[in-house]
Batch of 4 targets.
Target 1
Amino acid sequence: MPSLDDVTVLVPTYNEAETIGQVIDDFRGAGFDDILVVDGGSDDETDQIADARGARVVYQSGTGKGQAVREGVTEHVEREYVLMLDGDATYRVEDADAMLEPLLEDQAEHVIGNRFADLHEGAMTRFNRIGNRIINRGFAYVHGERFADILSGYRAFSRESFLRMTLSSDGFGIETEMSVECAKRGIRTTVVPISYLPRPSGSDTNLRPVRDGGIIFLELYRRAKTNNPLFYFGSLGVFSTLTGLLIAVYVGVEWVFAGISHEVLAVVSGFGIIVGVQLLMFGVLADLILTLHRDTLQKIDETTESDS
Ligand SMILES: Nc1nc2c(ncn2[C@@H]2O[C@H](COP(=O)(O)OP(=O)(O)OP(=O)(O)O)[C@@H](O)[C@H]2O)c(=O)[nH]1
Ligand SMILES: [Mg+2]
């Protein structure tokens, strides 16, 4: 029977001196004996405090939360399971059991804590709430999975399933990437309700909502290419076709009712429609290829499973 001895608590930190001591005390108090703090070169006392409270402190070789998580898991975790959370005391140790249960009972390989189940007042700005909602909707639409809170920083996963993911994000795109990889690679994923608390006053955010939100959107869209090519190429195709048609209508109306002819616009319009229709067709083809590819992969899986 797996236990807490199989779990490493992973906390990426950058300037969290205000809160990191509390976080480590809480988790040690709950029986976690391997707490790994991956520090991004904080210029406050984060690393000293973490070390003094009995955490294992390592320094990331690059920058950003994403790089810290990737390096932490691949190079500094030996145990089978990882419980990942932020160092800003916004997640509660009381939720740790619920996060780990599906893993330890082998019902899931990746667990996402849903912050919206119990979002405390002041924990998230209205702007971030709206951004999160749009991103979660978009994700469900493109990837066909409802994970409720794909950007959540409270996650539990098996190290093995993490290593199966293709991750490249350095910054706050890492949660998006993990969610996409869960959907794409069929990693068994469960969502559990958790509480999300406000940062204590005096502790500063590392998130730049507009810039990081933009990166997350781009990441989602880019990843749609291999998981939902019909959406990726189709949306561009529809946009291009519609623009072309709109210009065509304008050119037509001007020509019929005012007797003015717009040759250049007519060419642009024709070009937009042709490119758009081609993109659409390409999307359909890519979708077909992907479906066949998935069938093949499944057959391979079945064959190897029955062999072993
Ligand atoms: N190692 C490392 N950790 C980082 C870096 N940037 C952020 N973090 C940590 O990643 C966690 C999440 O960052 P936050 O700033 O809390 O981001 P957030 O939770 O989306 O935003 P808030 O709503 O302000 O809390 C925190 O523990 C940060 O200290 C970094 O460059 N390197
Ligand atoms: Mg935070």
Target 2
Amino acid sequence: MRMVLSALDTYAATLFIVVSLTIFGRKLYLRIRYLFLAKGQERRWDHVPTRLKNFIVYGIFQRKVAREWYAGVLHSFIFWAFVILGASVVEITAQAYASGWQVPTPSIAGFSLNGPLYLAEEVIAVLGAVGVGMALYRRYVIRPKKLMHEGMLDATIVLLFILGIVTSLLLYNAADIALGSAALPAWKPISSTLVRLSIIPADPSWWHLFWWTHVVLLFSFLAYVPHSKHMHIIFAIVNTFFMDLTPSGAIKKADLEKTETFGVSRVEQLSWRQLLDGYACTECGRCTDACPANATGKPLNPMRIITNMRDTLDAQGAAILAGKVEGLPDMFETVHSKEGIWACTTCYACVYECPVMNEHVPKIIEMRRHMVLTQGEMPPETRDAMRNIEQNFNPWGIGWDQRARWAEGLGIPMMAEATSAQGIEVLYWVGCAASFDDRNRKVAQAFARILQKAGVRFAILGPEEKCTGDPPRRLGNEYLAQTMIMGNVETLNRYGVTRIVATEVLQFLTYHDACYLGRYNDVYEEPRDVLYRIPGVRVVEMEKSRDRGFCCGAGGARMWMEERGEKVNHRRLSHIEETHANAVATACPYCLIMLDDAAKTKNREDIRRYDIAELLDRSL
Ligand code: SF4
Ligand code: SF4
């Protein structure tokens, strides 16, 4: 017997679907419209093949979600349920207009693919339900801290919607089979089992009830999605296509020719891609969970930067559209406090962990730029460091003419004095820390000795070398950063330098991964390779290592700022203590200073601190 819906059913269903689609479309339209309010420039249409690859790897196959296996499994069940059940949604809804209609599929040698499609739908419906069960168990029994925020209710509503949709699909199929009206029942084994077990009777009113339940849940869910955080279902996948393809963490140069304001203080000053982050956010809390500043009690919550930006856009979008921005609260009131923005070490852990490729650090830098360049504000303790860079081209404030003192007696030529007979092939870029910090000077000496033993013909710039501009740039002082960068570029061009070696690039106990070497440059194994080869050294890993390494606390110009509450470097020292290692090696001068400081302050000088170059120099 073929089941047919009445004309009244068709009218009622049509009305319901039209209203749901209107609610869905209106909100979606508004959100997209708000994206176009963005004034910041962003070019993300280049390198289409790479973008497509990222879209498949990170969007469709959700590689980053799977960094946590439990979340990876449950998300993949739910995600694929959405994808595969798309066909059944159309087919079941179409019953209101054409009884018995089936999704057209190609047939191979006379064999219709509808059967395998039904089987896939049944299996994925069950897996989708399992995924929902796992998600509810995680939220209500495991209760990881990162998920315990006010988004719980929304997440629960969405999960129950999904559970209702997949369950009503199976029940509808079962009622259809029981009445003998289903197409290809042999391909619907789970629904058939429900009939065999007499769970679903052959009763048209059950069939009718399940059809309506399925359709109402489906279209209510559709109307609900763009109003909830689950609009990431639509936008997250888009975000992966438009991810940043520049070298990890490269900070965009600010156009200082502009005469208006610098940096951002209002959401519409961000770029469309920055705003898209808000819609793509799943509120999974991974960014905040990985944040060293948050872990040590600083008022910084990277997830809030993203979600508050989205909510601000939502709240202010209509006024911005109407051009009535005067009097609207700025981002320091609605998105994140200034104190929190200054607490960031720019360690990149938040960006690295984000499964949907959101970019927290550029927003933080832009907000800092606004404070420094437009409002003339920066933490008072950083003023000395910035003044030192202006006057002596290094944050330590030691005379610029002292830069090469560490090299005295080592027979290292300077570029200005090198003769062509010396055949200089490489410039050793020493950096401020290795030039001026006593502890790191020893590292520079060790590194130079290694180069000499290796027969590398190298020279240094000596007093002509200047701060790279990295600390002022990360602090938001773009003007000073560009002044330093331009000075250095001019010097390098003058000497025609084509090859530079810095202490950090050497392949390199327990090993502390520097954020800028690791997450920014993907260098994890090379330093370990060196350590593994040093006789007498046994390497033990900290739990937070490699791409999950925990910041030392110095990045983002935090080295020059006061730190209140628990110190990030003290927390890192506790990670080292957990390994019971009696030495720690690193490959970054700033990390070395921070680890040194932590060991001294916490009376753990028995844990020796080395740069990897020193260990290698000794072993050679
Ligand atoms: S860059 Fe590091 S310190 Fe800054 S918000 Fe992200 S995780 Fe936190
Ligand atoms: S920004 Fe990314 S990591 Fe942070 S909560 Fe949103 S989706 Fe998760």
Target 3
Amino acid sequence: MQLQSEPAPTAAGDEIVMRVGHAGICGSELSGYLGHNALRVPPLIMGHEFAGEIVELGPLVPELRPDLQVGALATVNPLWYCGNCPACLAGVNQLCANRRLLGAHRPGAFAEFVCAPAKLALQLPAGMDTRSGALTEPAGCAVRIAELAGAVADEDCLVIGAGPIGLLSLQMLRYQGAARVFIAELDAARLNMGEVLGGIPLQPRDTDPVAAVLEATSGAGVTVAVDAVGTAQTREQCVAAARAGGTIILSGLHEETSAMPVANMIRSEIVARGSFAYTPANFARGLELLAEGALRLDPWIHEAPLAEGGQWFERLIEAPGDVAKVLLRP
Ligand SMILES: [Zn+2]
Ligand SMILES: [Zn+2]
């Protein structure tokens, strides 16, 4: 990871340029950094979770997006979509056949300035700073997970993994009225965050999380189990912890392929759903919920100068300790 000087971007017709205020480091970027992610090939400016100040509007923007003004604070849905394919027409633009990710297919926000399509920008609500606004992208992922989880009011749920997506999903399930939300996580500091945010902590080093969930639910299992890790083991644990007719939401992408106990899924009519990113509506909802204070990662956000970004990639790959999200500040 190197800090380099590049010419500042300029806004073409339907684009805006933003001065980045805060840009979060995402787990997918850590795997990109390690060379495990075909989408992210150097040389590349990563960074897709960000908020900042609009500093330039392309010539077509005043007509396309009259609500966007120079000087306003905004965040950007980093997933560009075509708007015309069957997925886009169905409102699931994150599944667009032609999708392009800012910070992977075009330069991202680990920089002083970033250029983005104006149609993907969202102004921050009055009073919100770019520190909170930069959490909109992971919040949108959690909104999508909770949407696919369906009705959870008074139902028990399980979240495996207390990284940012696990912690935000836990809060979403509670926001939607879940009875108990169990959270399993190996890292003690992250498990503590899950407990502070209202989850029932399960430490896999001490107890088998599946056995603990089954015992707590009189053998029935949970209505919804969310995998925010994505290993063969956590995927299997979701199946084993789900009640008959329950739903597992697969979000973590750690392992590309893994064996699943399909016969158990058939005999228990387990519904398995992949959850990828967010619809534009989920993204906007994430921003609203952050503004309401319904979703948070504070007090475990760490702000660092952009120049320390490389070191933070290394630290996050090791054991980050009491940090849920690192926000880089150019
Ligand atoms: Zn991300
Ligand atoms: Zn499309």
Target 4
Amino acid sequence: MLTLTDIERKEYSNIWVVAEVSSGAVQPVTHELIGAARELADARKSEVWTVAMGSDISSDAKSLFAYGADKVIVVDDARLDGIQDEVEAKALVRLINKYKPEVVLCAATVKGRALIPRVAVMANCGLTADCTGLSIDPENGDLLQTRPAFGGNILATIRCSNHRPQMATVRPRVMKAPEPDRGRQGEIISECILDTDADKVKKIIEIFHSSEATLNLSDARIIIAGGRGMKGPEGFELLKKFASRVGGAVGASRAAVDAGWIPYTHQIGQTGQTVQTTLYIACGISGQIQHLVGMQSCDVIVAIDKVPDTPMMQMADIAIVGDLFEIVPEILNELPKL
Ligand SMILES: Cc1cc2nc3c(=O)[nH]c(=O)nc-3n(C[C@H](O)[C@H](O)[C@H](O)COP(=O)(O)OP(=O)(O)OC[C@H]3O[C@@H](n4cnc5c(N)ncnc54)[C@H](O)[C@@H]3O)c2cc1C
């Protein structure tokens, strides 16, 4: 087995975040990753660097200092317009070889999932996808990457002790973004795309977004979610009414999605979306680990179930025991008419 000597290990320093850039703007998941990177860097007494690659990205890149970045490497090039994962991967590997980061974090988005595995292969290091927790060994810099394993039945903590850099992806809304400090300053490092990086520039003709529900779910501050306890598609009509009264979105467990009561775009959990809302109301969802990993970071969790000791009821801040088909209409009656 290849092992890393202490001397080789010391060549690598700082925690990097690959900024999620879309339509010339840095996306909020970048702030969440910088918040996590800041904690890791503080533990290692090192710095947070962010790599922002895109077309016309320079001015937006400066905003990243407010969230905790110390340095931002900006690669601003018109050839990076659209999704250019092959070009970005080559450029990123060059930067990794030049600056030698200890850790590289990337968002587990459509774009990040296309980009970072290429980088991991080219940089000859491991990659832990969809982490739900990150910490670091302050002595040797080993990244402790926690994620669900074995069908979500356990949470495994993974170390890649023998390779640097260590790479992990985190889904949007898993980590909390720090409050921005607008007065915070940092250093911009300008880098460029080489012609050898850009031999596979793609022309994106059109980008299709799936149904509005996907967007609504990740942006929602309130989610009313239903599970097998909703009994059928009619049950979800009740939840849609509830959600529209409180300005929220409708979520679902996999059981409800698999039954065909609501489309997959509403599914929350390990094989669905991760959400981080102010309020999450779970109706007839028992709260198996595969569901909980997708919503456990919500601020206030309310559970409605006829069984009092399900995992969801145990985890909830407010647990309402009873028949949801009586309780939900009662709540709707009590809500002020909008
Ligand atoms: C690899 C893998 C990935 C998975 N990914 C996901 C995922 O992403 N998301 C996900 O959700 N699941 C996922 N699952 C499935 C998960 O293990 C559970 O099977 C699923 O979450 C159960 O859904 P549920 O809570 O709606 O159903 P159940 O566990 O059947 O719970 C239904 C609840 O409704 C309550 N109830 C019934 N009727 C009423 C009523 N009238 N009033 C009040 N309460 C009532 C019951 O008491 C019960 O607690 C995955 C599983 C595997 C193996």
